[in-house]
Amino acid sequence: MTPIFTRSCLTITIIKYDNVEEIAFRVSKVSIVVNILLSVVKLAAGIVAQSGAMISDAIHSASDVFSTIIVMIGVKMSSKAADKEHPYGHERMECVAALILAAVLMFTGILIGYDGALKMTSSNLDDLPIPGSLALIAAIVSIIVKEAMFWYTRHYANLINSGALMADAWHHRSDAMSSVGALIGIVGARMGLPVLDPFASVVICVFICKAAVDIFKDAVDKMVDHSSSEEVEADIMDRAFSHKGVERIDLLRTREFGNRIYIELEISVNGNLPLIEAHEIAKNVHDDIETAFPKVKHIMIHVNPY
């Protein structure tokens, strides 16, 4: 299969499509193991230390296991080669996985927020337990681990250009932020304001729902053939116009298909050139753009006489 080219300042790293699925699965397996361990630790700490915020945070980490499995399924299906029924490939299955992930996140956030709101509006706020120091330690550990997982997953999501894996990275970040909310609530409750512990659950709800909305919006944009950014289109035009023989750019259309880009480009060349020379110019532009832009899957170039 055609390799993916990713550029850095000094080197060009080549990743074959056969390795994309392998990388995504390796990262996902690490995420699953970390989230299972973290959710067990936080749940135990929340129960022992009597912290509702930490128990809510544990539920959030447990939901990460399910969401990562969704990502793995989405990556597996999107990696399938084009066939007769799907001549453009299966890349949009990653978007479907991201939409399911957004729904799971939203549902989890609403449940956590609802439970925290009920406790805050109860008439016996003074009877709420004061969280123990174990919950405090668990919150700090969670923040460090989940932020590290965000950067780890984000690195590989950018490397293989995976929207579903990037959504999972932001799920890790939302978990880290929810642990920050839990930490604030636990500290406040230990300082004599027990209402801050359930309030932290409401804050966690907000972070989770915000992440769900962002993931949902990004997935929908990719599923409805949203055009690439103005910066990307400008770079594509500059690249095409830099080739000798290209006199004018008449038309450029881009559409994002899952995590890939399709391009329709019309260029003008000297109308007196032989067909074979005009074709060679178009071929050079085609090959250069596919090499320079890793996300580009297909380019259709039409040649007009100038």
Record the SSE blueprint.
Elements: E1 4-7, E2 12-15, H1 17-48, H2 52-78, H3 93-120, H4 133-160, H5 163-190, H6 196-223, H7 230-241, E3 248-257, E4 260-269, H8 275-292, E5 296-305
Parallel strand pairs: 4-5
Antiparallel strand pairs: 1-2, 3-4
Helix pairs in contact: 1-2, 1-4, 2-3, 2-5, 2-6, 3-5, 3-6, 4-5, 5-6
Provide the domain count: 2
Low-confidence stretches: 1-18
Round the Cα radius of gyration to an integer and report it: 25 Å
Terminal CA distance: 36 Å
- Outline type: elongated
3D architecture notes:
- The protein has two domains: 4-222, Alpha-lytic protease prodomain-like (Up-down Bundle); 230-305, Alpha-Beta Plaits, CATH 3.30.70.1350.
- The two termini are 36 Å apart.
- It contains eight helices and five strands.
- It has helices at 17-48, 52-78, 93-120, 133-160, 163-190, 196-223, 230-241, 275-292, and strands at 4-7, 12-15, 248-257, 260-269, 296-305.
